[in-house]
Amino acid sequence: MHQRILASTLNCSDAPPAALFRVNIPSHFAFLAPDAAAWANTLPRLPALHWADERPPPALVSERVMPVPRQTRRLLVHAFRDRPEGVLDNKWNEHCLVRPYLGRRRRRGGDGAARKGTSKNSLVGSGLRDYPLHADQMEQLGLPAAQYALAMADALAFLHWTVRTDAAGVEFVLARPRHHAGLCIGTQEFDAGSVLGPHAMWLLDFDCCGEMPMTEEGVGEVARGFWMGDPFFPHPDCKGCDGDERLWRAFRDRYLCASREMVRGEDERVRMLPEMVVARIVETVGVYKRREGWTCDK
């Protein structure tokens, strides 16, 4: 699926049409079978890992997504930890990719806003790898969350209607920009005046993606994947939170706009599907209970 997504990006001159903010897609280099000779040089460069059959599983070799720089890690540590000592100097934490969770806040009070008075350390994990940055934290830092929502909407529309995959299990991270040309969706950079400085969004993890039938059944699969995956996308169940409502409206409207452009030349049955996707997502609020560590069953 990774190669198919890359090919779709390469073959589409403006994918999606009028796409806004850049979302990078890592290049694909090779496939490693469990008995591939290349593992001999690869395994020593990876963290200590163990497999049930004492040999590695099949793997894809892809472009490395470069972690955020030290100044960004310092910002996160001092903003969201009571005791930052030692975190920055931990080598493990140098490989920090930020996961923008537009669909989740750390705590909610009765008004839907993040609850105050909770210790910083109870809100974040102990490490910086795959660091979850929630909607209220983005607001606190003044990050361009609305721009992230538009970028995710374009990416999701592209996956659904150009690649024709259900996009189940895809992930987004904020990391360093590329220093060379590469395949991406959109062209515009995020607000360079933010506290993160120059940064880019990357689209990752296509293992769970399946074919999306251009039918009502396909719409159901899309809704299931939307709710079962990690909370990257803004959610329609805003619980009275104005900030979440704004993010959802921006995401929904942009998704529909980009989707309509991509299905414009299709028959009427297909042209109706983007609106059906959004309606099904709204209808299934609370139907699918996401589990931490959920993996696809495909």
Rg (C-alpha, Å): 20 Å
Structural class: alpha/beta
Strand order of the largest sheet: 6-8-1-7
Number-wise, the strands total 8
- Taken in chain order, the helices and strands follow as HEEHEHEEHHEEEHHHH
Helix content: 25-40%
Q: Please indicate the percent range of residues in DSSP E strands (runs of 2 or more).
A: 5-15%
Provide a count of the helices.
9
How far from one another are the termini? 13 Å
How many strands, which pairing sense, and closed or not: the largest β-sheet?
4 strands, mixed
Low-confidence stretches: 109-119
Total individual domains? 1
Global geometry:
globular
- Mean pLDDT value: 86
List the helices and strands and how they pair.
Blueprint: H1 2-11, E1 23-24, E2 28-32, H2 39-42, E3 59-62, H3 70-80, E4 98-101, E5 131-134, H4 135-141, H5 145-163, E6 171-175, E7 184-185, E8 200-204, H6 216-228, H7 242-262, H8 268-271, H9 273-283
Parallel strand pairs: 1-8, 4-5
Antiparallel strand pairs: 1-7, 2-3, 6-8
Helix pairs in contact: 5-7, 6-9
From the structure above, extract its key features.
298 residues, four-stranded mixed β-sheet, alpha/beta, 34% helix, 10% strand, two-stranded antiparallel ribbon, 9 helices
Descriptive overview:
The protein has helices at residues 2-11, 39-42, 70-80, 135-141, 145-163, 216-228, 242-262, 268-271, 273-283, and strands at 23-24, 28-32, 59-62, 98-101, 131-134, 171-175, 184-185, 200-204. The chain is of the alpha/beta class and 298 residues long. The protein has one domain (1-31, 62-286). A four-stranded mixed sheet has the order 6-8-1-7. Strands 2-3 form a two-stranded antiparallel ribbon. Strands 4-5 form a two-stranded parallel ribbon. Helix 6 (216-228) crosses helix 9. It starts with a helix and ends in a 15-residue tail after the last helix.
